[in-house]
Amino acid sequence: MVIDKLKEKVYEANMELNRKGLVIYTFGNVSQIDRKSGIVAIKPSGVDYDKLTVNDIVLVDLKGNIIDSRLKPSSDTKTHLKLYNKFPQIGGIAHTHSQYATSFAQANLSIKCLGTTHADYFYSDILCTDVISDEMLFKDYEDQTGELIVDKFTKEGVDYLKMKACLVACHGPFTWGQDASEAVFLSVMLEEIAKINYITQSLNSDINSIKKTLLDKHYFRKHGSNAYYGQE
Question: What is the three-state SS of the chain?
């Protein structure tokens, strides 16, 4: 029953990406982990969203071994597994090739925190990784893609629970959360913020990042210990 619910949640999360217009055809994937069993449910590789069913969702363990499926898991599975292993408090991951966020990734640019819309969901700039080296590329591409994210957060001293997104240079965005649903929600927010950021910098290329006091106010009124945004 737990596994059935896990597959249903991952299926619905994947379909939500499609409903929100962040993916087309086979672009993107969502996963969720059951930490007690160490089982990860993820979209299968190369299956169109308009043909995807809950029974197509693939189950793997944290080493990538297929547990129960007639299909291959997403080609990005090792990236997801790297993040689950290195970020032990996350429960779901989403990856898209959404237009604006991917454009920043292809430009090798982080998304600067320019206003309160950004600050409501992400604490400071959304980082872009380094471009993957040939050594990493030919070692184990998808695993090393995850390592790029982990390395960037480690070098910059970023808390993965306050910054639940990263752009992989020349590739695209990854988001994560307590489950697949939150990861998808943050993918939607990330795309909207990337769009607003692009428009803002088109209007004023010299704009500076939001001041720290305003960043703190907006982020922590939603996510801090004394948060007061929304209903109890």
Answer: CHHHHHHHHHHHHHHHHHHCCCCCCCCCEEEEEECCCCEEEECECCCCHHHCCHHHCEEEECCCCEEECCCCECCCHHHHHHHHHHCCCCCEEEECCCHHHHHHHHCCCCECCCCHHHHCCCCCCECECCCCCHHHHHHHHHHHHHHHHHHHHHHHCCCCCCCCEEEECCCEEEEEECCHHHHHHHHHHHHHHHHHHHHHHHHCCCCCCCCHHHHHHHHHHHHCCCCCCCCC
Rounded to whole angstroms, how far apart are CA atoms 168 and 173? 6
Q: What average pLDDT score do residues 138-166 get?
A: 97
Closest alpha carbon to 166 in 111, 208, 211: 111
Annotated catalytic residue, options 34, 120, 143, 151: 120
Query: pTM of the entire structure?
Result: 0.95
pLDDT at 3: 87
Q: Is the pLDDT of residue 40 over 60?
A: yes
Q: What percentage of residues in the chain have a pLDDT greater than 70?
A: 100
Percentage of the residues of the chain whose pLDDT score is greater than 90: 93
Domains in the chain (CATH in brackets) are: 2-205 (3.40.225.10)
Residue 139 makes CB contacts below 8 A (sequence gap 6+) with: none
C-alpha span between 93 and 148 (Å, rounded): 16
pLDDT tens digits, 127-147: 999 999 999 999 999 999 999
Residue 120 catalytic? Answer: yes
